[in-house]
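name: query_chain
kind: protein
chains: 1
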Amino acid sequence: MANPLHFTFLQEARDYVVITFGLLLYSVGFTCFQLPYEITTGGLAGAGAVLFYATGFPVHFTFFLVNIILLVIAVRVLGWKFCIKTIYAVFMLTFLLAAVKEVMVYVGATHPELTQSEAGIPQLVENGMFMSCIIGAALEGIGIGLVFLNNGSTGGTDIIASIINKYKDVTLGQMMMILDLIIISSSLLLPSGNVERLLYGYTTLIITNLLLDYVVDRGRQSVQFLIFSMKYDEIAGAINQLHRGVTVLNGQGWYTKQERKVLVVLAKKRESPTIFRIIQNIDPGAFVSQSKVIGVFGYGFDRIKVKADKKDKAGKPAMAGEQPANLPQNKA
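structure:
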């Protein structure tokens, strides 16, 4: 039997590694491809960019200071488990934003052929504002998606979006798009603000959130297994060590009239190769059916985010077409 504590430690370590990689992608996309062209992206980093374009105040300082306030709220609403990774992400992203900027300044100093922007950061794509917009937005969306997929957050508007997503059946991308529209639109107030840069900001917002939803949805896809095997007990025990539940159903073959056990397993799509290896090692002749499922809700999967039916004073749920007891009845 696998040690649950050992499994949990490895899973947590993997989360932090992937979160760090996602933050690195975001930092590269934002600093290397957005700042040189003064493209305003969404999130708290985008708000910091607006302040940076106007006053020169470093983005990572704004990002860090505002996040301290938001984290105090997040601890009470989302809990320590969420906030521990968020605190790590805030400190790590603050460091990475500053580090990547220093690297870009060094690149600009050692490669004078690169065009220097007003922000002091060289433009890696020469006269390619549109290409930089696409590359930067793609890296940001993938990076944020990896962070969210591993139960983390980059802070800022991500915290607000996560709080709303906890209680409402809306995607993270949709919530962040609403919040970020205000930040990007504020770039018109800058001395260098114009409609062209505003449209680039909106393009960045759309691409970022599309890729964010794509990464998160792909990572949360679930599958259902129907496993027919005479060695069902061994297979069920091995799958259970993956911290996945197994349901045993009683079945009967129509032709042979023989009783047979059927295993039903709901798992993440990324766990499919492991389950197939287990089946192959225990019973290569097992009959297996795998199908995609639209959604799985419950322990170990997603949370149901719809409100319960309203109840009348007696505590009885109001039926469709029925008036609650505390309301006057319609008269003919």
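note: The CA atoms of residues 69 and 129 lie 34 Å apart.
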